[in-house]
Amino acid sequence: GDSVTQMEGPVTLSEEAFLTINCTYTATGYPSLFWYVQYPGEGLQLLLKATKADDKGSNKGFEATYRKETTSFHLEKGSVQVSDSAVYFCALSARGSTLGRLYFGRGTQLTVWP
Amino acid sequence: DSGVTQTPKHLITATGQRVTLRCSPRSGDLSVYWYQQSLDQGLQFLIQYYNGEERAKGNILERFSAQQFPDLHSELNLSSLELGDSALYFCASSGGTSGGALHNEQFFGPGTRLTVL
After folding, report:
1. How far is CA B76 from each of CA B16, B24, B80, rounded to the nearest angstrom?
2. Residues B109, B91 contacting (CB under 8 angstroms)
3. How far apart are CA B67 and CA B84, in angstroms?
């Protein structure tokens, strides 16, 4: 079945460090891929998305590229800030199931120190 | 602000009790999803409604039920509560005409934190 695996946290970085959070997926066909972010005490917010192979999603300095050959969608940011401290979730929506459920990874806690 | 509202924000109750969680989707969204977030299970899909009809079921217990009303708001009913039901319950919506529906971009509410004592 469809599933998402992302690196376990927590991840602790100093401000301005480079961030990578790994995400791989298993799905039939070509799913849409998402990164959601959850700040403390809040709901999930869509950070970025990619809907087909080789697409690059980007937002707020974060990027992720849909790699069909490696079934991956790794999240990267060149220079993290304290305000990026949050939990990050990788998710997929199966192709052909418009309006269907999302499959989430377990989440990665990121803490950025000044 | 995602446009999805959930009430109440916090709920504290005792084992064996019944509670109702409420969700109002974004304006124009026809589909509502319920997810449970707990430390040990992560984010689990419970159930989906589309325009008033049940569309899909996930890991929802028989003690839980949901419905979507003609005005598209949804309620999640949890009964015979157990300590293990303590969790964050999120509602999400999608499927509106404002975009994102084709690729199932879902918009999440702030959640209801349920504590069962």
Report:
1. 16, 12, 14
2. yes
3. 23
pLDDT tens-digit map of A15-55: 999 999 999 999 887 889 999 999 988 899 999 999 889 99
pLDDT of A41: 84
Q: CA B10, CA B31: separation in Å to the nearest integer?
A: 24
Cα separation of B95 and B97, whole Å?
7
CB atoms A32 and B55 under 8 Å? no
Structure tokens at B82: 């157990």
Nearest Cα of chain A lies from the Cα of B7 at a distance, in angstroms, of 13
| Tokens 């809907």 -> residue | A51
The DSSP letter of residue A34 is: E
Nearest CA in chain A to B32: A99
User: Other CB atoms closer than 10 Å to residue B99's CB: what's the count?
Assistant: 8
Give contacts of A105 with chain B, Cβ < 8 Å: 42
- H-state helical runs in B1-117: none
Contacts of A56 (CB under 8 A, 6+ apart): A50, A63, A64, A65, A66
For A108, half-sphere exposure in the C-beta direction (CA atoms, 13 angstrom radius) is: 26
Predicted pLDDT at B102:
56
| Structure confidence by residue, pLDDT tens digits, B31-48 | 999 999 998 888 999 999
Tell me if residue A75 falls in helix, strand or coil: strand
| Contact criterion met (CB below 8 Å) for B78 and B11 | no
**Which of B43, B92, B103 lies nearest to residue A89, judging by beta carbons?**
B43
Cβ of B108 and A51 within 8 Å?
no
